[in-house]
Amino acid sequence: MASQIALGGIQRSNRGLLAVQVQLASGMQFTRPSDNAIGASSVTVLDDLIERRSQRGVNLAQADAVLNSLDASLGDVTDILQEARGIGLSQIGIGSDAATRRNQSAVIDSLIQSLSQIANREQRGIHYFGGDSHGAEPFGSLLNGLQYRAEGLGMRADLGLASDVRLTISGEQAFGALSARVRGDRDLDPSMTATTRLSDLRGATGVGIRVGSIEVEVNGTPVLVNLGDADSVEDVRAAIQTAMQTVDPLATATIDPATGDRFAITPSAGNTVIIRDSNQASAAGDLGLVGTYVGGATTTGADLDPRLTTLTSLDSLSGLTSPRGTLRIRNGGQVRELNLSQYDTVQEFQNAVAALNIGARVEIDPDGRRLNVKNELSGGHMSIEEVGGGTIATELGIRSFALSTKLADFADGRGVKQSSGSVDAITGLPDPAADRDFRITLKDGRTIEVDIGTSSTVEDVLSLTMAAASAAGVSIADFSASLNADGNGISFTDNTPGAKTFVASINNSGTAEALGIAGDTSTAILAGTDRATVAVDGAFAHLMTLRDALLANDEAGIS
Fold first, then answer.
1. How many angstroms separate the CA atoms of 191 and 235, rounded?
2. Domain around 463
3. Which of 121, 200, 214, 374 could join 284 via S-S bond, C-beta 3.0 to 4.6 A?
4. DSSP letter at 332?
C-alpha cells in the first residue's frame, strides 16, 4: 500500500516536471484548453481580437488601394468629359463645316469607348463602378447603346470605425447611368395575405408591428396571447382565434375580405370579446385590434397598410382588372410586348421585364407603395405603352405618357414651348389671342384655338383643349381629346363631316410639335406621337447625343 502511494507521488511529480519542461520549451503557460479552461477562454478571445485587428489592417490596405484607383478613374472621367466639351464648343459657329464635324464625331466615338473602359475598371475582381454588384462588369453594349447592369450604392467592408465608407460607387452616381423616370403615379395599396410577413406591415399606428403579448378577454375570461414568435399574418390570426375559442368555440378571426388590409373579429351570438395590450406591450394597438367586439357581428380592425414587396401577389394590388392585359415597352429602336396574366408576383414581373433584354428595369419605390421603371440604356429612348385599348400600364401607374406626365418632362426634359405674356403692339395691353398655342381645324371648317399657358401636365392640356372646344361651340359628340388607345400620345377625335382634320402651332409657339400633335388626317382620329419618352440623363447619353449631332451636322444638337 505504501509503495503504491509512493509510486503515485512519483508519477505526479514526473507529470509536473514534464509540464514545466513543456512550458519552458514552448514559452506557453498551457498548450491544451483542458490544462486551464478559464485561461484558454481568455486566450481564445484575445486570439480572435488579434485576428480581427490583423484582418482589418489588411482590409484597410485593400480599401486604400481601391479608393486611390477609384479616385484616379474619376479623374480620367473628368478629363474625357472636358475634352468632349472642348470639341463640342469648337464645332459651333461658322468656323466648322459638315466634313470637320463628321471627323470630330469619330473622335467623340473613341472617347465613348475610352469612357466605357474606365467604367468597367476593376482591381482583384472589384469593379469600381459596380455598386453592390461589384463582381461583374457594370456596363455592356445593348441595342446600339450602353446598358448599366449593376445595382446598389456600393460595397462596404469591415474597416472598424470606418465601416460605413463604401469602397465602390454606383454607375448611377458616377455617370448618371439610369433615368429618373418613370415613377409610379399611384399607390398600389396591396392587400395582405396569410403569408404576408409582419415586417411588411406599416401597422395601424404607422410604426410597424412591435410583436409582444396581447390580452384577449372573452365574456370576462382573460387569455394571454404571446405573439413574440409570430412572423406572418397567419401566425397572428391563428393565435387570436385559438385564444377566443377557448371560451367561445365558434368565434373567428379572419382577414377582412372587403378591404384585405385589416383583421376582422367575429364572436358568436351572446359573446363579447375585448382585445387590449398587455402591460407595456403595443402589439394589439399596432395590429389595429384594441377594442370591444360584440357577438353575432363582424367588426374590423384598423388598416395595417401593407408594403409592396417582391413577393406581393399581383392579384392583391388594388385597381388591377382581371384578366391582366398586355403592355408594350420600346427602347433602343426595339419593341417588346409583355402579357402580365402569366405572372403571379411582383418579382416575377420584374424578372420578366429584365428578360426582355430591352434595357428597362422595374423597381419598388423606397416608399413601398408604387412601382418605378428606369431606363438602363444610355442612347435609348424608352416608353411604356398600352396595347390595343388596354389599361394595365395605367393601372400599374407606370405608363410613361399618362395624364399625370409633366410637360417639363417632354423633349428629354426641355419641356413644351408655348406663347405667353403677349402684348398688343398698338394698345400695349395684354393680348390673350396672341398667347394661344395651337389651332385645331375640324373637317367641317370650324376651328379651336387652345392656350395651354396654365398647364403643367398632360391632363391639363386635355382639359384646356376641351374647354376651348366648348367655348368655340363644338360639342363633345363632334370632338374629343384623350390619350392614344394604342401606344403613347394625344388623340383628337373629329366626328364632323369633311375632308381632313388639321393641327398646327400658332403665334410661333411650336407647341403642337412639342406635344406631338402637329399634322393632319382624313380619318376620324388624329393620333399624336410620343414626345415624352424616357432617356438617360448622364455622361454616356450626352456623349452619344453629341456624336450623333456632329455626324448629322446639327448645330442646334451640338450646342
1. 17
2. 432-532
3. 214
4. T
Measured distance CA(329)–CA(517) in Å, rounded: 21
Q: How far apart are CA 79 and CA 102, in angstroms?
A: 22
Q: Are residues 49 and 148 in the same domain?
A: yes
Which of 400, 420, 454 is a domain's end point? Answer: 400
Question: In this structure, are residues 400 and 181 in contact, taking their beta carbons and an 8 Å threshold?
Answer: yes
List pLDDT tens digits, range 434-471: 889 999 999 999 999 999 988 999 999 999 999 999 99
Q: State the Cα–Cα distance between residues 347 and 273, nearest whole angstrom.
A: 40
Same domain assignment for residues 52 and 145: yes
> Total domain count for the chain?
4
Cell of 289: 385590434
Looking up cell 415597352 gives 329
Which one, of 175, 439, 192, lies nearest residue 305 by Cα? 192
For Cα atoms 163, 166, 167, give the angle at the middle one, nearest 5 degrees.
Answer: 110
Residue 475 and residue 453 share a domain:
yes
- Tell whether the torsion through CA atoms of 220, 226, 227 and 233 is positive or negative: negative
Which of 300, 326, 360 corresponds to the end of one domain?
300
With a CB cutoff of 8 Å and minimum separation 6, the contacts of 547 are 105, 108, 109, 112
Q: Is residue 551 part of a domain?
A: yes
Short-list 331, 381, 353, CA closest to 536:
381
Nearest CA to 496 among 482, 478, 481, 473?
Answer: 478
Pair 150, 60 in one domain: yes
The model's pTM: 0.85
Q: Over the stretch 228-269, which tens digit does the pLDDT of each residue have?
A: 999 999 999 999 999 999 999 999 999 999 999 999 999 999
Q: Cis bond leading into 182, ω under 30°?
A: yes
